[in-house]
Design a protein that fits this description.
This protein is α/β, with parallel strands linked by helices and about 220 residues long. Helices cover about 35% and strands about 20% of the residues. Bound molecules: 1,3-dihydroxyacetonephosphate (13P).
Amino acid sequence: MKSLIIAANWKSNKTLDEDDLFVSKFINSYKANDLKEIIICPSFTGISFISSKLKGNYGKISIGAQNVSSFSQGSFTGEVNAMQLKDFCSYCIVGHSERRINFSEDLSIINDKIKNLLEAEIAPIICVSSLDQLDGILSSINGKSIIAYEPLSAIGSKDPANPIEVNKFSREIKEKFDVKVLYGGSVNSENVSDFTNQDSIDGVLVGGESLDPISFLKIIENA
Ligand code: 13P
């Protein structure tokens, strides 16, 4: 059996109390499996707490950030740089369509973020919604990087992409580059195995259905 990554992108959700509630319910029923790495990506405000509760305590659970500064340390009010994340996170999401669209993140910003993350030894989870978006990014990645394919029409729509098409996309990338490829977009406990059973898909990046510990645990179990 191949190993899988099941990542949770909590987006801009959860107060500290809600983080705490998730952790207590999650650890009650979570069964570690060496073949399934779980990556939880809370907001910055929850990273320290979630990391202290889950990182390394229950087998293969890692922590990721959802964003990082495109600058290194210095006079950049409000920014969190890659070296600051290093104590808590082994992964960081970059290039998510919600950031490209709402925060005007372009290729140059995304490449700066990837470079800073790789320098801090944090693996970037680079989100793309089309093959074209890989142009100009792949020159800056290395084998630690993960690509997450998230077609715009599938995000938050309850209308996931076709697993066969996603597999084709993943294979094309993996033929050229030594990277893992995840799928993201309306993944739930019922459709997750349609994706994880494909030979070239290495796992999933889950949004809405990862917020509830019970539905996320079901996704992990069925993956
Ligand atoms: P949903 O799972 O809510 O569709 O979100 C997908 C996503 O954007 C993960 O990064």
